[in-house]
Amino acid sequence: MDTLLKAPCPDMRRMSALDLAFIGDGVYDLLAREYFLQGGPSPVKKLHGQKTALVCCQAQAKALSGLWEGLSSEERDIALRGRNAHVGHVPKNADIADYHGATALEALFGWLYLRGETDRARELFLMAAEILG
Questions:
Q1: How far is the C-alpha of 29 from the C-alpha of 102, rounded, in Å?
Q2: Is the pTM of this model over 0.90?
Q3: How far apart are CA 23 and CA 12, in angstroms?
Q4: Which of 11, 56, 62, 105 has minimal Cβ neighbours within 10 Å of its Cβ?
Q5: Average model confidence (pLDDT) for the chain?
Q6: Active-site residue (options: 2, 11, 25, 95)
Q7: Neighbours of 47 (CB within 10 A)
Q8: Tell me: the pLDDT tens digits for 57-96?
Q9: Contact residues for 76 (Cβ-Cβ < 8 A; gap 6+)
């Protein structure tokens, strides 16, 4: 396992899907930020707009839908745990189905990250970015 803190992997059997989504949100966001910086220098406001369009609920739900067939059964199980998680609230500008889809994608990325599967997280992120075009 290789996380940024190089901390021991927590027992993911005891973690809720929302715990996984919590870390996955940050992982996905960081991947998006790095992705847009590859295009060279750009105004921060433009970078922020591009990143926001890629990490919003609607985009994440659409990305998960496009990735679904290529996920392993274990990855699908984690995503389903995220999708079925009981969220405390849904932002007023988000559709509930999109919010659950975004939570599923974030849970998957959190799970991959905590398992040290950064290559797979990177691969799925690049596929998601392509899906979202």
A1: 12
A2: yes
A3: 12
A4: 11
A5: 92
A6: 25
A7: 16
A8: 999 999 999 999 999 999 999 999 999 998 878 787 888 9
A9: 68
Q: Which of 63, 34, 72, 64 is nearest to 51 (CA)?
A: 34
3-state secondary structure the chain: CCCCCCCCCCCCCCCCHHHHHHHHHHHHHHHHHHHHHCCCCCCHHHHHHHHHHHHCHHHHHHHHHHHHHHCCHHHHHHHHHHHCCCCCCCCCCCCHHHHHHHHHHHHHHHHHHHCCCHHHHHHHHHHHHHHHC
Among 39-48, 60-69, 105-114, the least confident range: 39-48
Q: How far apart are CA 46 and CA 86, in angstroms?
A: 34
Which pLDDT value is given to residue 52? Answer: 93
